[in-house]
Amino acid sequence: MKLDPLSRLDETSSIQYSESLCQYLINSKDKTESINIVVVLLKVLDISPSSEKLTSLFTKDLLHYVLEITTQLSSPESVRSVVKLLIFFVSGNIFKAHPVYRTLLDALIEKEQYTSSLASMLPIHDSKLPATILDFYYKMLYIATESRIPELAMLYRNLKRGNFYTGLLTLKYEQGMDMDAAFRYHELIRCSHKAELILFETKIQLKYDCHNFIFTLLLQSLNTSLNENGTPATKGEFVRAGFTDNPQKFILSKLSVLSALQFNNFLLSLNVAFKKTYFEQLMFSQDDRCFPIIEVGIMSSDKLYQILNTDKYPSLKQHTISSELLYTNLMGLALRIWKDSQADTSDLQVISVLLDYAMIYLEQLISQNENYTVAIQTVHDLTYEELRVFQRNQIKKSHKRVWKEETHSVSKIIHKEVLEFIKEERFLQLSHGSWVYSENPIEAAANNKKPRSYFMILSPNIQSIIYKEYTDQLTTKPNIDSNGAVLDLSKISRIVAIPLQHEESVPENSRLISLASRTFYERIDLISKQNQIIFTFYTSTKEASYTWSDGLKFLTNSTKDLSPDTRKQISDLQSLRESIQLLKLGKKESQQLSCSASDSAPSYDASRFDTLLTGFYYT
């Protein structure tokens, strides 16, 4: 049969040629011959006129045969020829009402291995095959989503169970794609997201065979998953799992098609760790303390829906085609939170909020270029306490951000008050006096000599330092107000603290237990306005060092170079003050200030901020 690619067939001829080729194809026993027939049939259809009469030729048996060919071929070019024929069937070029589409969809749904086989070919080193396969499934999914046919659920299930999306990830992250494949990839992902949104918003309706099938599958999985022995679940076991005493009614009223598919897939792939924890928890808990697995399953579906339907998780949204991993880990995290917090059914909303923060944590990790799988494992391994700390910090940041502009002046006042408090604390410590060394204790020890000491104290008028040297440190504090030397603070321009090396060797093979030493030797020089050292002493602990060096800096108004310990103390106190006092502003007001730019500016009473600085006392 010779065909002129530039001419068009009349309807009668196209039907005759197509009918003969379809018959040859079904009767063919040779792969090469089948491929040749497919190529010729595609050419015939390409030059055929638009005709609904051709529809009857493409029966389910024929389409099953065409799909079967794809599972038997190894040549990428041969597979591509067959898939191009499938694309032609659903393109609408000559079948305006897509009747062949429904027949092809039924064939795909009946045998999952067709999708599995094509999915396995996505990573093949061929520049054209991946784009062709992606184009075919995009068109299949697009028609199903646009027409919102009930069979959309089965097509989506087919893609999931056929590991099609896993093949997509391999293609994207390991194999790489050309521009055509990348374009088809993004089209398919957008269409998949739309399909998930539709299925999430669709309740199970038993009048549809495909919904009935999904409903039955879920009940079968539940029957063998709600007890440790895998025996048919009792009414009591359904109740303890959160299904009430009428699980069928519960499923139909509470679960969407998507949440039913996700939960069923979760039950079929339960890992040993989850099973062990779940059944132990059931065994030792009262009814209201049993982990409501179905309620948390619905909750996890809601979280995945939020990723797709909001802009809160832009980084996570890029990974929703592998949502099974996230769903499974949300379930596992919820179970551990439930157990560790000793929750009961009244705490479900608290669990939901904590899962929201787990997703925020995950979003932050992925946005910092953390590997998706590693990031999910990191979040899954969070303890209840760690997640609570993260939640607290996020709330704190959010609250601070909302009130940032309005409380800027308040923060400055708080900082000044905290600085004043630390200053008074250091003055108080200095006014009690303490022992320091008058000579380098490390050099003295190296010469088997005991270092001499100063007793130093701040004068009552806070204008000078009184000190006196002693051979040994006394067990009681001496009174040196009348006979000690006086150092006028006005002569000091700056204070320089220099840490001293102190190496302690431990013999090799020592059986001694090493204890971390609190000894921290530091030399403190007091520098005059003429840049001369006018006094030097040595401290042996960090506490003594920052008490004297920072205390003297406060006294001489040179607070730009405070020690890390003192700076941290100032920062922590200021943060505590702000956190406690900003809570007085209230959550409702905070939310009001979170309005969009198009809303009118929030109004607040300026006197409200005056109350923030009252009622707070340091101890």
From TrEMBL:
Which InterPro entries does the entry link to? PH-like_dom_sf, PH_domain
One Pfam family recorded for the sequence: PH_12
Where would I find the PH domain in this sequence? 422-557
From the Swiss-Prot or TrEMBL record, give the protein name: PH domain-containing protein
